[in-house]
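Hi support team,

I submitted a single chain yesterday and got back a structure, but I'm not sure I'm reading the token output correctly. Could someone confirm the output below corresponds to the sequence I sent? I've pasted both exactly as they appear in my results page.

Thanks,
R.
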Amino acid sequence: MTPVVVVVDDHSVRHQVHLRSSAPALAARPAAYDLHMTTDTASAPAPAPLPLLVLGQGTDLHTERGVECPGDLPAPSDPDLVERARAAKAALGERVFVLGHHYQRDEVIEFADVTGDSFKLARDAAARPDAPYIVFCGVHFMAESADILTSDDQTVILPDLAAGCSMADMAAIAQVEDCWEQLAAAGVAEQTIPVTYMNSSAAIKAFTGRHGGTICTSSNARTALDWAFEQVGGVDGDGKVLFLPDQHLGRNTAVRELGLSLDDCVVWDPHRPNGGLTSEQLAGARMILWRGHCSVHGRFSVDAVEAARREIPGVKVIVHPECQYEVVERADEVGSTEKIIQTIAAAPAGTSWVVGTELNLVRRLAQQFPEQRIAFLEKNVCYCSTMNRIDLPHLVWALESLVEGRVVNPIHVDPTVAAEARAALDRMLALPGTTHKD
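Hi R., thanks for writing in. Yes, this is the structure output for that exact sequence:
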């Protein structure tokens, strides 16, 4: 059985995946946030037609990702998994460089050579050109970014190809191209610049590059939006930004940091004709927000913030800007994953925090800073389920396969797509200030 190679081109995602059971694709996800919120996000869009597959035997040519495991995937109950991972990593030496995203489980982070957010990790990989194998313990779009930035002599490996991102999957390239055509038909495309969040597929980044736009992270979203508006007459002009794929980051940045109003923002729903918007709404909008969200951050609620303030005297609330606008407005601090870590690390002993981001990271912060009281903001929110598909058995399988001379789950972005995506990334890197953290 040959390794899976995922190839992305500028119009679709081509693939062939073999699974280990005939289990069907997972059903469409329910809405991932409070249905009583006041901004126009009362129901989640159905994911783009790229369902997340479970491990199993079989083939589905209509999906972006799947899993192939030549040989046996180690059992999670194997008591020797830790030693097997250590032995495989030692045998590979400097030929392998393991990247661990902040949201990974501790058993995986233990074997990471570096940890961080997605784009920082991709750049870390590019800074290690002597390592022919990059094992990315993250999700699919992150591995794509690493493949774009690393050399042709390096191979990026994703231990489980089913480790996707629900937000990235909410913007399929065909949907985005259709949106652009409809913006052109409405007469607003020429005064619109796309700005795409890092949490997006290579194909969407390439679209952004083709249309003169830039990528942003949650750290530099304001700088990216400032730049974009400058291309179309400035923040006080009539130009527009098409913000992909996270509506919440786009809205929070535009309203809270650029001084636009909520009325300046409209939401493009790819599942409705003309995005569910009238020509008048498009003409009057400054921010055209794609109807996408993070399935973890989108769940944090105003009720949870208010409950934390009632139950924990003097508590400080810190949340990620992918959260809903109403939640961000009620927080004491808002920032990227890196900023959350840095803020808590610098806080005085005895500070009480509730943190609105992924649970693996919150638990790790509580362990690292026991002198502070650190709690998870939302009692009913789970781990990032797709990130958690990267577990110790998959990592061991990927590493031991390399020891045996077999490359599994390589991620290869089509060269044309990579070049166009790189153009958008380079525009981001040319922006002033901090550009390398999510």
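A quick pointer for reading it: The domain at 6-166+385-414 is CATH 3.40.50.10800 (Rossmann fold). Let us know if anything else looks off.

Best,
Support desk
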